[in-house]
Amino acid sequence: MSGGSYYVPASSRWPILGSLAIGVLMVGMGLTLVYGNGGFVVLVGAIGVLAVMTLWFGDVINESRRGLYDEQMDRSFRWGMGWFIFSEIMFFAAFFGALFYVRQFAVPWLGGEGAKGVTALLWPDFVAHWPLLNPPDSSISGPEQIFSPWQLPLANTLILVTSSITLTVAHEGLKLRYRNTCRNWLAGTVLLGCIFIFIQGVEYYEAYTHYGITLDAGIFGAIFFILTGFHGIHVIIGTIILAIMLIRIHKKHFESENHFGFEAACWYWHFVDVVWIGLFIFVYVV
Q: What range(s) does the Heme-copper oxidase subunit III family profile domain occupy (predicted)?
C-alpha cells in the first residue's frame, strides 16, 4: 500500500443476501411467537444467516491473508466493530428498559400505587408483586414458581466469568507469541461456551416442564425468555466465532502485532459476559 491509499473491496452480494436471510429469520420468529408455526421459516433463516456469515467472513480472511489491508482498513474495522457493539448495547438496553418499566411502573400502577394507580380499578383484587406469578387477568396463567438464582443461573454466571478470564489469557498469549498457550486457553473458552449453552438448554427444559415458565406465562415469562433467549443466541454466535478463531490459530493466521480478527472476537465475548451479569442480577436475583 502506498501513501494515503487503502484497499477498497470489490462489490459484494453478501450485504443484501445477509439482510434477506435476517429478514426471513425475523419473519419466522414472528410467526413462531404469534401463531406457533414458524419453525421451518426460522430454520431456513438461520441456515441462511450462517451461510452468509461463513462465506462473507471467508472473503475477509482471504483478503487479510493476501496482505490487502493497511492501517486505514484496520481503523475502519475497529470503528465498525465498536459501533456494532454499541448497537448491541442499545438492543439489550431496550429489553432491560422494558423490564424496569414493568417492575417499577406498570405493576405498581395495577396495584393502586403511583400517579396512575387508578388503573387498579380494572382488577381491584390484584396484589402487585414481582415476579408476577399471578397476573391480574385470570385468563392468563403466570408461572408456578421461579428459579433459584443460586443453582443453574449461578453456575452459568461462574462459567461465563471464567470464560472471559481464559479468553484474556489466550489473548495475552497471542500478543506474547505463545501460540500454544493461546490455542489451549482459547479451546478452554470454547468449551466453557458450549457448557453454558448446554446448561441454558437444561434450564429451559426445567422452565417448561417443572416451573410453568413459558412464553404464555404472563409478563414474567415473556421478559424471561426474550432476555435470556436473545442472550443465548449471542452466546451461540460468540462460541462459533471463537471456534473459528481457534481454527485460525491452529493454522497460524495471526501475528502478535496484527490480529484484529481475534481481538474483535474478544470484544464481542466480553460484551456477552457483561450482559449476562446484568441478566443474572436483574432477572434472577433482584
A: 2-286
Q: How many CB atoms lie within 10 A of CB 81?
A: 17
Provide the sign of the torsion angle of the four alpha carbons 5, 10, 11, 13, taken in this order: negative
CB-CB contact of 262 with 189 (8 Å): no
Per-residue confidence band for 5, with pLDDT thresholds at 50, 70 and 90: low
Burial of 286 (0-12, 13-18, 19+ CB in 10 A): exposed
Rounded to whole angstroms, the Cα distance separating 64 from 253 reads 9
Q: For 125-160, how does the pLDDT look when each residue is reduced to its tens digit (9 = 90+)?
A: 888 888 888 888 877 888 888 889 999 999 999 999
114, amino acid identity: G
Chain-centroid distance of CA 221 in Å reads 18
> C-alpha grid cell for residue 77?
474495522
User: What was the pLDDT predicted at 190?
Assistant: 97
Between vectors from CA 11 to CA 8 and to CA 15, what angle results, nearest 5°?
110
pTM value is: 0.87
